[in-house]
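> run fold (Na+)-NQR maturation NqrM
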Amino acid sequence: MSTFIAAFVILLLFFLLMSIGYLIKRKAVEGSCGGLGVLGIEKACDCDDPCDKRKRRMAAEEARRAKLTKDRII
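> ok
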């Protein structure tokens, strides 16, 4: 049981240190290799015909972008 508690405390310590580092740098957490964009994949679901849920989400994102560009001052 003491091993579990020690491992848990160490894990919490690392989370605390990472959160302090994030607060100090104010930099977004990012991967080291660039993710799917490096491979030329624009979305996580790289299928030809996305599902209905994905289509609704994409339409909502496009509508939000259109509204933001329409209401832009500059």
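The radius of gyration is 21 Å.
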